Amino acid sequence: MHRSFLYAALSFLPLTALSTSALADDAAVLSGIDARYDETASVARQLWEWAEVGYQEERSSKLLQDKLSASGFSIRKGVAGIPTAFIAEYGKGGPVIAILAEFDALPGINQGDVATRAPIDGKAAGHACGHNLFGAGSMTAAIAVKNWLEETGTPGRVRLYGTPAEEGGSGKVYMVRAGLFNDVDIALHWHADDENSAAARTSLANRSAKFRFHGVSAHAAGAPERARSALDGVESFNLMVNMMREHVPQETRIHYVITEGGNAPNVVPDFAEVFYYVRHPDAKGVEDIWARVEDAARGAALGTGTEVDWEIIHGNNPLLVNETLAKMMDEKLREVGGVQYTAAEKKFVEQIRKTFDNPRSTIESAGEVQPYDRSLGYGSTDVGDVSYATPTVGVRTATWAPGTSAHSWQAVSASGMSIGFKGAQVAAKALTLAAIELYESPELRETARAEFEAARGENYKYYSLLGDRDPPLDYRK
């Protein structure tokens, strides 16, 4: 019997020998994950300490590989032309269930594991999106699934994908482009959050580029007529794009940072650079807006007497929702439950929540699972490209104090301590139970595949928003 149907029936049917056995089996699996808590926490903490940015995650990647290798996984290193990308696999025959693992940090933000603002001197990055937890929790899930396959003799392979540079580097896109997901039956992923949810949330497609303006230097006071300011080009470009915001679909998101604008006010800069992101719910929308952004760059260069070129850095498709899988994951998350705080953890949460403006949720929500629904999320992820290669489902767990925003110092803080580690354990449990369900139910896999094929449409052909460029291994240097 399909165990999802079994659990639904338990509320009004007497327990059978099969249902008792299934629940006992799940309890044993979850107990095994609990027994690995110290290892999960240790790995998550070490990744948090290192806080390595995209494509520079040498130590983080090696630590995960070493742990998985020691647990009996075979390792393929440096896949898709990315030194820190890897695939760890165990098993033979049967379906291939993939578990995604991220481990890159965000530049320009760091914080100690305390509830007040406390940057760490000399540290240039931090895990403000919880990818240290993502990597550690996925590792634990993969090992738990491997142990279950081994103990039960079930045919099947569990495959952990070590995916670098999610933050603006599109590591998974290169792995999809290289065909590394072609034989995967189902892909599972998760993410750090301030609540527990397996709702079917899609994401925005996005593309980024570094626009580089080239001008002519001269003394800003003594010979300004000889100069052509590259910074003028950047500022004119930004002005035009900001005016364009009034005339794009409301779901669009455009953001930028000036990464180089000169060094001295009395030297007209001959080089300036601005880094842009453009997002929209579908890839075609991104491309339409992107064409207008490129025109604005050309116009800014023409108007300021400069030259401009640009380099596409990354591009992600939106998440392709699979509700067959999402509803199954919701059941697993509800079986696991949320995060329960100790008195010390509750005190930490209460203190850090004082730094929020009107937090949207209560402290108790960390122990709850949010209602299932289908919605549009305004973030972007390279998991989107995976979701067009194979049926994909994710889950979010309360790794941060309720009310925390991603990419904040509060997220860095919780990601380095027990609140984050407990959320990673919840994710590991939900992923493991979902994987077991998928191995045991060919009907579920078939239904998910049928929904996936219908959602992609007939004659679907994969298209990458970053084109045919090589991985930008130096984009964070």
TrEMBL record:
Q: Which UniProt keywords apply?
A: Hydrolase, Signal
Q: Where is the Peptidase M20 dimerisation domain?
A: 208-299
Superkingdom, according to UniProt? Bacteria
State the name under which the record lists this protein: Amidohydrolase
The protein's matches in Pfam families, at most eight in alphabetical order, are given as: M20_dimer (PF07687), Peptidase_M20 (PF01546)
Signal peptide segment: 1-24
